[in-house]
TrEMBL record:
Keyword check for Transmembrane helix: no
Entries under Gene3D superfamilies matching the protein: Metalloproteases ('zincins'), catalytic domain
Listed Pfam families: LysM, Peptidase_M48
Span of domain LysM: 443-490
Protein name: Putative Zn-dependent protease
GO BP: any one term: proteolysis involved in protein catabolic process
Position of the signal peptide: 1-33
Keyword DNA damage carried by entry: no
Cofactor annotation: Zn(2+)
TM region positions: none
Amino acid sequence: MKTTRRKLALGSALALSTAGLAGFAGVAGPAGAQAVDSISASDKAQGAKANPELTAEFGGRLTGPQATYVESVGKTIALQSGLSNARSDFTVTLLNSPVNNAFAIPGGYIYVTRQLTALMNNEAELAGVLGHEVGHVAARHSNKRQKAAQRNSILGALGSVLSGAILGDSGFGRIGQQIFSQGSQLLTLRFSRTQELEADKLGITYLRRAGYDPRAMSTVLESLARQNALESQLRGSTSQTPEWASTHPDPASRVRDALVQAGANATGTTNRDKFLAGIDGLTYDDDPRQGIVDGRKFTHPELRLAFDAPEGFYLVNGAKSVSITGQSGKAEFSSASFNGNLDTYVANVFAGLTGSGQPGVRPESLESTTVNGLPARYGVATAQTNSGTMDVAVFAYDFGNGKAYHFVTITQAGGAGAFNTMFRSMRRITAAQAGSVKPRRLSVVTVKAGDTVRSLSSRMAYSDAPLDRFLVLNGLQQDARLTPGQKVKLVTY
């Protein structure tokens, strides 16, 4: 969550007109493709218009040596598509986002998050992911999704959860699976299994043309599947299916298909050491400037605040908000314009929960309280949905100096109390506490004699599942043996 206090309009769209998004995590939609062999003037105009807001939605553009390296690889693989022979026609952006995602829009705009980049283990994998995205554009898959994009719009993660539930667009039981699993990454359009497999094949073709090992597409898909399964395990979810594969053949099938397409005995460059040197030092997980999620605790050192999610809930930090989800409800922490009157503030938040032309959601009354010295105001409203009657609560805090923040929660009727401990946990933090918040960073280390996966994993900056995290991050199995001189990735403070 950025320090910029922009109101999250629940149900508002990130309008991309006909540009669309081609997402590495995308799923579902009509099949078919129409090849394109150039970047049109209209594509360039639409891409240029969408790029600033889209970049902001995913945490902003990173600069520096890591971004320059990713840009170079991206332009090299994009040239293999035949969309253009000029590197300058492509804009490759490394996004400051802690979610695993990559996507592209027509006009030569290609994006990958730092989190997904950190998950990769060589340059060929990076090229494969970016080539997959260029493949979506070259095959004009986004044009096939244009009507769906205009019909459904591209919503902020919790925005679509709350507006969907309130307006009856989705069942309560499906909300978490559809939106919260990977947070903002689901801003990408969803493609059919045929389109995703076609993009995989195009990406593999581009890898071959550029001289990379085409098997890299298979290995990066496997890493992403393992990472999603690990995150599901850490949250206590029973579903092990990655979000990007939820309507596809099982993840293993997609990995196998990519390997078959590449050829089990294929060869080519991977540039592993160059890649690891190129991404060494990347911020991993949350950027403190956007707030830090640590288990059930959220801390924002610049806003000088912290709160704790209830037991059994997990947090996903986004560009404009923090989502909180569990079996008994969903919530969002965000901010809005504040004129000093909490009644007006809460009323405006409620008013923003439904789209244009929809009946409003209003609380029967507003109550005042004080939470850890902060003046607070809250109300609960009921909403009829296709999943039954829901309780929608808004709980707002006055931080002084024209700043206010709030939670919006949704639960089954009578269940709003599930978030009481979270409401009561909101607090200011001291300058010393803010100063103690440190980012996690990707650190490339050289294996020494006597190092093992267990000894190195103990250096990971996590108290939960450090071994599993280390293995997935490095594409290693439980029985892996390390060799002195080998380079591996760690996440450290």
